Fold this sequence. Notes:
15% of the residues lie in helices and 34% in strands. By secondary structure, it is of the alpha+beta class.
Amino acid sequence: MKQVNTKTTELSTELYSGKDLHSFTVQASDGEIGQVSDFIFAPSDWVIRYFVIDTGNWLTGKKVVVPAAWIDQVEWDQQRVSVSITCQQVKESPTLDEIDEIDRAFEARLFDYYQRPAYWIKESKVDEASWESFPASDPPARW
């Protein structure tokens, strides 16, 4: 994993291990939400999809997931990870305690809750032939 130095916007060649992030404080846009406790990755392509956040005493041991794509910044010297969500959003978000496994239904609920596009949905251009195959009253904006 490469680190981006946000002060100079130069790409660092240093590599870091995920275990280096374990216990880093997670900072939402309006306060601290917990600590990094684990990662969830997709075994098909080895992409880290989610950071698991232990909310600790703030929400009495509640564990939530935050998509890795939502990480704004990792401050290695401060041992802090910044995410672009609010404390209130985390407080009311779906938790890992509610499920047995992270499946597509949980992911869909998570992305719907945050009202953000899911990583598996990609926009595509609609060509004229495809456009004509839809009823005029309901043309798709996205596939």
